[in-house]
Amino acid sequence: MIRFSNQEGFIRPKGIKFKEGQDINIKLPKVAVGVFSRHLFYDVVQKFSCREVGLLKCANAEREVFILNYKGNEITFFMAGVSGPWISADIEELHAQGVEKFIIFGNCGVLDSSIEDCSIIIPTKAFRDEGTSYHYQEASDMIDIDLKYENEFLEILDKYDFDYTKGYTWTTDAFFRETPEKIEYFKNNGAVCVEMEGAVIASVCKRLGVDYFTFYYAGDNLDSTEWDERSLSGLTNIDKKKEVMLLALELAVKINN
Prior knowledge:
Blueprint: E1 31-35, H1 38-47, E2 49-58, E3 61-70, E4 73-79, H2 84-96, E5 101-110, E6 120-129, E7 142-144, H3 150-159, E8 164-172, H4 180-188, E9 191-195, H5 198-208, E10 211-221, H6 238-255
Parallel strand pairs: 1-4, 1-5, 5-10, 6-8, 8-9
Antiparallel strand pairs: 2-3, 3-4, 5-9, 6-7, 6-10
């Protein structure tokens, strides 16, 4: 059982960490883009003007935080931590450093084989089959996903000629326990995909009162007799994934006001 408390946490976020010589008083740009793929993350860092300003740091890992200049807009850019606990901490620390709007995206498994590889999925609700969200919001089977920036995103999808699917997502924290029984249950109850962070992003941002938009690009297929990996591997279909990265950056420009 998870015991929910509405009090503030005993340990509070202090913001990102710094290397020697970095500006410890920096306030980050208010719009942040987080991507779960390290391949897409470092591709952007190499292609565009990026200035490293700090770190998201824990006991056994460090991830750089950059200020990215994209089409004249300064954007906080970070490699999002995989799983509910990591992404919740990322959002907390970056918000403490000045971020007010989050765009976070990555791949997902599909529960409908008709959803094409690397096509876009816009989640509308998330099944809470994990633990972290229950520390940020009272217990419920599902949580609404904020669609505040949906219209802006749809304009971008149309511009870049991307197909998309809207539907429920299943957020789990144990991908080796995505059993046939559970796949059938969530599919029959409206889920079109499965991932590890959607419900957590929604619950943390709701708790903090910050805006966000999250979306996925389709990866492995669970709607089959055997697991179909498709483009789950990071470099598979990488050119298409790089196009998906641009969708997030374009949305950041649109909401940077």
